């Protein structure tokens, strides 16, 4: 009799294991409230009940309950969202309906918490965008100011060169004028000297 009972119990366990685990299903759960649920699923071979928590830092955005697709991902955390830096943490369990309770009635507190979380994320993004915009604006302003100062320096250099050329031209003109004046003066002096000399020669002949 005991052999038959043991055999029946073994068959019952085999049938239960062969049918797989029954797991809760929730596609989008915030806090303790599921906003998009489905009927419980039954796992296939080498599957377990899975809970996936999506979070960033200390803020949990939402949770998912389902039948795990890949058992090697159980109890691991991965980062799949490079834009918002969200982490996906999966935890698995091995008995029926072990992956969390599902409550299908949203509350005001839930939506308030979700709004605060999303608002915090938007605020952080706004600050980061503002800092990046400020740095970019500063670099652009610096480049413009540098080009402006460079053009101003070139203009001043050209002005100084023009003034220098004008001064050199004036000095050359003044030098030529003084040279001609001195030449005429020396010419007259030599002419008078030669005239007096010739006059004395003529007087001696007479």
TrEMBL record:
Residues in UPAR/Ly6 domain copies: 19-100
A Pfam family recorded for this sequence: UPAR_LY6
Composition bias type Basic and acidic residues, residue spans: 122-166, 175-206
Record keywords: Disulfide bond, Secreted, Signal
Chain residue ranges for the region called Disordered: 122-206
Localization annotation: Secreted
Leader sequence segment: 1-20
Entry GO CC: external side of plasma membrane; extracellular region; protein-containing complex
PANTHER family listed in its UniProt record: LYMPHOCYTE ANTIGEN 6 COMPLEX LOCUS PROTEIN G6C
High-level lineage: Eukaryota, Metazoa, Chordata, Craniata, Vertebrata
Name of the protein: Lymphocyte antigen 6 complex locus protein G6c
Domain of life of the organism encoding this protein: Eukaryota
């Amino acid at each position: 009799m005991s052999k038959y009972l043991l055999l029946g119990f073994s068959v019952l366990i085999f049938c239960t294991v062969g049918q797989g685990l029954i797991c809760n299903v929730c596609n989008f759960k915030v806090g303790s409230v599921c906003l998009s649920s489905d009927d419980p699923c039954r796992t296939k071979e080498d599957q377990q009940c899975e809970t996936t928590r999506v979070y960033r830092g200390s803020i949990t955005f939402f949770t998912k309950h389902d039948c795990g697709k890949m058992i090697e991902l159980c109890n691991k955390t991965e980062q799949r969202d490079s834009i918002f830096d969200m982490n996906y943490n999966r935890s698995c369990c091995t008995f029926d309906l072990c992956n969390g309770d599902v409550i299908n009635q949203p509350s005001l507190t839930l939506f308030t918490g979700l709004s605060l979380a999303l608002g915090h994320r938007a605020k952080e993004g706004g600050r980061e965008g503002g800092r990046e915009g400020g740095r970019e604006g500063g670099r652009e302003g610096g480049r413009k100011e540098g080009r402006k100062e460079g053009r101003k320096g070139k203009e001043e250099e050209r002005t100084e060169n023009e003034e220098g050329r004008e001064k050199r031209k004036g000095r050359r003109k003044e030098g030529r004028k003084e040279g001609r004046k001195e030449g005429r003066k020396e010419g007259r002096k030599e002419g008078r000297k030669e005239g007096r000399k010739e006059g004395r020669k003529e007087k001696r002949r007479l």
